[in-house]
Amino acid sequence: MKTLDLQPLTAAAFAPYGDVIETAGHEAQDMNRGMAMRWPDLARINTDADGQVTIGRVRSRRYPQPWDLTRVERHPLGSQAFIPLETTPFVVVVAEAGDPPKPGALHGFVTDGAQGVHYRRGVWHAPLLTPFAAMDFIVVDRIGPGENCEEYRLPQGETLRICV
Predict the structure, then answer these.
(1) Residue 157 φ/ψ region, left for φ over 0, alpha for ψ in the -120 to 50 degree band, beta for the rest
(2) pLDDT per residue as tens digits for the range 60-114
(3) Into how many domains does the chain fold?
(4) Which residue of 10, 39, 83, 101 is 20 to 30 Å from 125, comparing CA positions?
(5) Residue 41 within any structural domain of the chain
């Protein structure tokens, strides 16, 4: 079994798959007469003409270590963003949009605990991987008609081991 190498999540490394949702590198604006700061436009949710953007909440259980990745998924009708409500790192595994990925095309990242992620439409990704603790996330997603979640099971013997 092959182990997936994980690297720190950076905007540059994650650019082929979507956006890192963080304030670093973005200019803040004063609001509420200087009593708050706003960082607008950190990511743009994209959806087909039939969909609508929704905001929800997700709770992920703590994943055991090591964990074997056997499936990935993608959302062909709309992009998807996950913003953690805790300052605990989590693991992101992605592959570019297109044909189902071979294990060698998957890339793994570890967030710094304050970063969220925005997956572009069609980008293959693992489920939320929370190896350090159970976590809550705000999810910005597409709702509407049509099938917006496709799963792909990695071929027998091509499972990837995730270990942090």
Answers:
(1) left
(2) 999 999 999 999 999 999 999 999 999 999 999 999 999 999 989 999 999 999 9
(3) 1
(4) 39
(5) no
